[in-house]
Amino acid sequence: MNTSLVVDSLEFFSSMDDIFDRLLILGSYIGHRFIQFVEDLAHREFDRYLEELVRISAGHQLKSLRHGICKSFSECSSSSKPSISDGGPEICETRASGPRHELLVDPTSEIVGTTCSQAAAPFICKGLMLSLSGLQFAWRLAMSCWRSSILYVRSAHLQICSVASRVQRTLRGSSDDIGWLQRIPSMPSVDDGTERFLELLAGIRKGKHELPDSFVYLLIPGLFSNHSPLYFIGTKRFFSKMGLACHIAKIHSEVSVEHNAWELKQYIEELKQYKRVMLLGHSKGGVDAAAALSIYWNDLKNKVAGLALVQCPYGGTPLASDILREGQVADKEARRIMEFIICKLIKGDIRALEDLTYDKRKEFILKYKLPAEEIPLISFHSEASIAPGVLATMTHIAHAELPWLPLPRFDNEESDNIVQASRQFPVVIPLSAAMAVSALHLQLRYGEKSDGLVTCRDAEVPGSVVVKPDRKLDHVWMVYSSRKKNTSEADASEMCEAILTLLVELGRGKALN
Length: 513
Fold this sequence. Notes:
Mean pLDDT: 76
Order of helices and strands: HHEEHEHEHEHEHHEHHHHEHEHEHEHH
Strand content: 5-15%
Structural class: alpha/beta
CATH topology of the largest domain: Rossmann fold
Distance between the termini: 148 Å
CATH superfamily of the largest domain: Alpha/Beta hydrolase fold, catalytic domain
Helix content: 40-55%
Number of domains: 2
């Protein structure tokens, strides 16, 4: 009995030593794998490695390791006697996705060792998997916070740059665009005809009228002329009293330049008189007339004798560009306001204002060439007064139309005219004050002289004869000044007569040459 007790005690301690050896080997293996994991964690492509490690290594390799260890414990514990061939303990080899490890198995080990090993291996593997999952979650959380911070900083940086760019573009305005025509070397130069114009104007003031009746004089109104029934009316009556054939082009001024160019071509071709036409365009009307000659010159060269551009934004206007320029502060809001005014209230087209911007004028002028060498051209521009007395004036009466009134219509034209007149009501508009404020704004911001809407440099057409009056005249003076008679100074009708007389002389000079 004592001998049996000693043998059992030795077998029990031998089995416990075997278990501790195996746990030591397992712990060494797990430590090695953990150190390798930490080293791989420092690399840049950690996310991909960690994903594959958890999916493949934790899901497959660790499971194989646990199965291999448990299988080794079972096989080694099942043999109760030492090997005859070796005369000593058997050597069981296990491979679990790592270096080769040899487990010494004692033939005298009992079932209790196998049970403890099988219970310890899954617990250690599960603990390792939980640790890896926790590290993965913590790392991904840290990386998510870091990426969110970087994205937020980048977004804030882009917004700051965008706001700074918009502010800079708004403050810069049209500084680089005003007078761009004069900076192109290929553009022809201009001649000064102011002295001759003043001589002709003085003769007209004394009753010397030299304007021949061998031409048809076509007056082309500018923007918003459809809502101003007094536009060019005084000038037309003045010419008609002298026995001259004078017409006002009935076009929709609040549409695009190319559309009005086509309308003017049709209007000129439909004139029944067998006379050539002298064109005088004011403001946007001059742009429309120049576009008609530029696009349809082959059809109109035998019908048009000359073109006078009066206060015309041929090169563009800073007001239209500053309102509709993209990329500046409140550009979308400004465009919506102008679309509401032009499209909804006036029933026009926003392109009527867009075509007067510098970008659109550059695109059109470089695409279509004005025949300045084949036809006489005059560029008339003026400077508005910015005196304090002008800023306080309330001048002129415009007429607004009420299209929503359901008024009846009659068969005869006279009754229809009466009904149409009842749709209109007078509106007092401080036009001179508005032009003075606008001219002061352009003077202070850009240092440019203007009539309130068009700068003097943008009104000069390359290859034309430039006329500069010796008086302060705003942009709307040429249209409405005939209503206020002043015997000491010339009115708009006499100004237009002098311009057209000079245009006829230039045409005769070209014919002689």
